[in-house]
Amino acid sequence: MPHIVFNKINKELNVPSSLDGTNFNFIAKSYNFTDSPRKTEYKISTTRDKKEFLLTLREKEEKLLLKPDKVTRISPVQLIKDSLNSYAKITEAEIAFSNTQNFSQKVEPTQEYLKDIDYFVNDFNTDKEIQIEIGFGSGRHLLHQAKTNPDVQFIGLEIHTPSIEQLLKQIKIQEIKNILVVNYDARLFMEFIKSNKVGRIFVHFPVPWDKKPHRRIYSNDFINEALRVLKITGTLELRTDSRKYFDYCVELLTNLPKGKITIDINKDLAVSSKYEDRWKRQGKHIYDVVLTCEENDAEINHEFDFSFKKEINFLEVIKRIPTKTLVEKDYFVHVEDIFTIENKENSGLIQITFGNFDRPLSKYILVEEGKASYFQDSPLPTSANIKAHQKIKEILE
Ligand SMILES: C[S@@+](CC[C@H](N)C(=O)[O-])C[C@H]1O[C@@H](n2cnc3c(N)ncnc32)[C@H](O)[C@@H]1O
After folding, report:
1. Least confident of 39-43, 111-115, 201-205, 297-301
2. What is the pLDDT, as a whole number, of residue 366?
3. What are the structural domain ranges in the chain?
4. Which CATH number does the domain 114-292 belong to among 3.90.950.20, 3.40.50.150, 3.20.20.210, 3.40.630.180?
5. Cross-referenced NCBIfam families, in alphabetical order (predicted)?
6. Mutational pocket test of ligand 1: of 217, 281, 286, 357, the residue with most ligand atoms within 8 Å of the beta carbon
7. Which residues line ligand 1 (CB under 6 A)?
8. 375 near 349, Cβ under 8 Å?
9. Is 387 within 8 Å of 328 (Cβ atoms)?
């Protein structure tokens, strides 16, 4: 991570000001809202190449450390490096250490088929049937499906980066055009897919999580979301070597109010995955449990207004802001830190972590003269984020 350590800063940073294409917009200073004392830290709002983010400035061993803020991460690294250098130059600082001059820039491989979750929220649209593979691992099964069904749009979900890179390589080598890959937790992904669009969802050899069943992909919520995105005759397909996972899923599925389930033991598929080969060599049984969708579902609305309507009295709010995590059934809100903007009335930054327990989101809320908004951009419209936002509104307004 690029950073600079200063012996001293010779000129105070005036805001707003700009140098060499970097704009410094405002400075916010840490505010002690918990009982534990802390060192002063500054957040410097910075814009470069039309991207807005924060730099952190704090004391470190009698020197000053300037680095990018973790929550407002941006890329490429060059942009951060240039901004840090602009700060050093504008403040005529005496540099003790810097890795911003020769920080080697990693060349990103072309990742045409790797998509950000934002892409699925805002831009993804297809007339083709969609099929999804959850936890594709080596990608053997997904590649086989994509090659044999060129008219289907496949989406591969994985959270293991080396597996993603391996699949992207194969997509390139085999010139496959109908797979989109996303690094996202499968339990939360389905929320962003339109109702009744998916033909098949493959869950092959999921991690059994026998000691932590709450981490399993299958749950009542997951099954209901799968049924919503599946079109009539669409299928949710589990293949597992774990008797415990099989029993657990059969119990969940047979508790559905209505449905069609088929079970197979040791069924051969056209392609066998690495895991499957291993289990077969060990003489284990392989179980298939397929749930078929028999009903259409209503569309869900992905548009949600994350704005704050009422004017906020920032200084009043931060005096009574909860320091403890607010935990509700399916979401939480935790205020991490507070900063007040110098020389601007009723203004500051609130750093919060919130949303789903498995995939919490960290963001800043910027309050400028009483008007609050999410810094950089709004949260993704997941059900947990929407509920958390309503709670945050209650706290602030
Ligand atoms: C046991 S491997 C099976 C891989 C592949 N399906 C096969 O049959 O060879 C399980 C895979 O699921 C992925 N995984 C685990 N939890 C996940 C989640 N919540 N969302 C997406 N992928 C997940 C893991 O990274 C791992 O690659």
Report:
1. 297-301
2. 97
3. 4-98, 114-292, 314-396
4. 3.40.50.150
5. PRK14121.1, tRNA (guanosine(46)-N7)-methyltransferase TrmB
6. 217
7. 134-138, 157-160, 163, 185-187, 204-207, 217, 273-276
8. yes
9. yes
